[in-house]
Amino acid sequence: MPTNALFFSLLRCLLIFTFSRVVFAQFYLDNETSPTHQFKSRPDLHAPILDFAILRPDLVTPGYIFLAPYRNLDPGPYIYDNLGNLVWSGAGHSGPKTAHTPRVCRYKGTDHLCYFTGEQHLGFARGHGVILDQNYRTVKTIEAAGAGASNDMHEFKITPYSNGTTVLMTVYQPRQYDVTTNPRFNLHNGIGWIVEGVFQEVDIDTGRLIFEWRSLDHVDPSQAWTLPGSTDTSGDGLHEESPWDYFHLNSVDKNQDGDYLISARHVSAIYKVSGKDGHIMWELGGNKPTFKQTNFAFSYQHHARWISENQTHTVLSFFDNASSSFNATGRFSHGWIVAIDHVVKEATVIKEWGAPMPEGGLLSTSQGNVQMLPNGGCHIGWGEHAYFSEHTADGTTIQFAKLAERTSNVMIYRSNKYNWTAQPVTKPALWSFSKQEQKTGFWVSWNGATEVKSWNFYVSNQTSGPFELAGSVKKTGFETEFHMPTFAGWSFAEALDGDGRALDRSVVSKTFVPSEKLRSTCDDSGCKYAERVPPEAEVPYEAPNEVPAALFSTNRGFNTSHYYEDVPGAPYPWNHIGEWEEQSEDGGSDSTETEEGKRSSSIAVPLGLLIGFTAAIIGFFFFRAGGFRKLQSTAVEVTESAFGSKVLQRYTRVHTKESDYRSHSSSSSRSGIL
């Protein structure tokens, strides 16, 4: 290829790539979360939609699916039925924090709902355990014992064989540590910081510490497979804000003999720990394995659980991630059952389950779990990827679903399946609609209720009644829909169980009737969403009074600029309220960077690179005849393309907004009024 043509081809590729990155920035943001349900009776709920690739309703184990996606629109604990219908949205129930591993637990002889809630950090969390009753009321919160760090997300489990009196939990404890003793750590000239993996067994009612185990007392950091600064969650070990997580304790279980089974991801090992003195009784995998692995290798595993054990054999299950995204021992992740023969010191995989993906499997480089089901099958949560599956004992996949695309940011630490019975203390929610006061539609739901089988609808044309039964329908999914051929101005819905017994009723609801102007956009199920009027038809907003700067609170609170657009015609952009700093009389400004500034900066960076590269090309062709002419034609070609036009239009809008803001900011500082 001639030199000129080569350079022009490279230039064209760079220009188009730069434009495409800018134009599609918002597109990628839109693809980072889960598609969500929309419910007329509960528009506040944004539960992820389950997308099934495989579903065999006749074969799946009865029960409900418990999971807690995070980094989605409304993170929190959720319950779904086997067909993917929402049963309970606990978003917000755990507070403004992330939740992990909702599961049914036995506390004081009855079923409860347990989960962890807390502040998410990189690779771990800080928080506490929560126990809810069958009305979704909090009956207990459990914190770590002692004077160390708070609970971690990786394990919060009522202890087996404790009759529901104690709980197992993990703690990630940062400590100062001499990291100069081993050259593999690549740290010197000072004290380092390390994360000690700790697990505790704690009495639920008293908070008393029953047992505690600390990794640094038993496993030397030299055994780590993950060194300081080697992964995105390892920590660099240089300061307390980024301690080296050499162990990464991620599961704890207990057997009837009182010993513990723990999994440590960053040493790729599973340990049996003595419940008497904490010494390591055996090690599967890792750098000091007790057993020869006859037919498998594993690494960076999660969720080790006892299945059975006697004097000569141990059977356990765990999720083999097979990769940390930086190192790998396999192409795909699997759920495994491993049998250990203590006589011959060998470990053998006896059952294996993988994801039914077209490429042969799914590689999940973090998180995940395997839950053994009563029928011998298993339920698998695929961790880093927001997928879950159910498999029969012979390996057949009978359920495989996702909450979000693999390219999204959404993750699920663990997914489980249990039977569950609950009746919330909240009431059913009802919304009714009539387009022309002729026919009436009703939509009803009851978040968290598991025993509703049908609904009765009662109507009246007066708020105080009398109310007459308009009809009954079977419950369908989370939200049930009912239509009647006549108009009803007021109504309520009544929930019935399988025996026809009334469980509860909604409050009386007034039917929404659209205005004559709005009616043309409606059908019998509601009206379409409103649209913004064209810019030329907008009515300018004029504030009746300008507020003195001294009256504004200096507490900015949460930044809501991502959710609220500028109000057209306002004297200043509303999404900058609370971000303007008091300015000097000469027009100087000490304002923090605004969201528009950040967005324009995100565009300016690639455009700056583009301009710099273009300048270099111009210099090169300065010495070549006809170079400028060809460069000009290429620039015209790109800027007039669809990509180029969109980017230039967007840049112009952002630049205009920024100029208007600066102009107003300057005039405001001179007048002393915000």
TrEMBL record:
Keywords, ordered alphabetically: Membrane, Signal, Transmembrane, Transmembrane helix
Stretch list, region Disordered: 575-599
Transmembrane segments: 603-623
Pfam families the UniProt entry points to: Arylsulfotran_2 (PF14269)
Biased composition (Acidic residues): 580-594
Signal sequence coordinates: 1-25
Keyword Signal: yes
UniProt-recorded name of the protein: ASST-domain-containing protein
